[in-house]
Design goal:
By secondary structure, this protein is an all-alpha fold. The chain has four helices and no strands. The radius of gyration is 15 Å and the shape is elongated.
Length: 117
């Protein structure tokens, strides 16, 4: 690996940030400091922590930041379900976003596993 930019999980999570920003544009204005902000922050946290961890000097530190990304991913999944429950997101769109997050999670767990072995 040359940099974090070479990691597929970073690339996919970065693309997902754009999707979340586009999605939340249609959320009600009263959610701008609530759910919209939370979704965006959690989404941004995933590739940001991957990048920060990759810049650290040890595998242990990198692994720690990957686990933080994993936590943000779980937070984002929960917020998408809340969005669906509130009617801001259709069941179909929620499923599509969840499938993408599941793929990112799978790749992230694979990277974590490779660092731990």
């Amino acid at each position: 690996m040359k940099t974090h930019k070479d990691l597929i999980v970073w690339q996919k999570s970065l693309d997902f940030v754009t999707e979340i920003y586009q999605l939340t544009k249609s959320y009600p204005k009263e959610e701008v400091y609530g759910l919209t902000n939370q979704l965006r922050r959690a989404a941004v946290s995933i590739p940001s922590n991957i990048a920060e961890g990759a810049a650290r000097s040890t595998k242990k530190e990198f692994n720690q930041f990957l686990h933080i990304s994993l936590g943000s991913l779980s937070e984002l999944k929960t917020q998408l379900l809340i969005s669906e429950n509130l009617g801001y997101l259709s069941k179909e769109d929620s499923l599509k976003k969840t499938e993408k997050l599941t793929e990112i999670r799978r790749i992230l767990l694979g990277l974590i596993s490779s660092l731990e072995n």
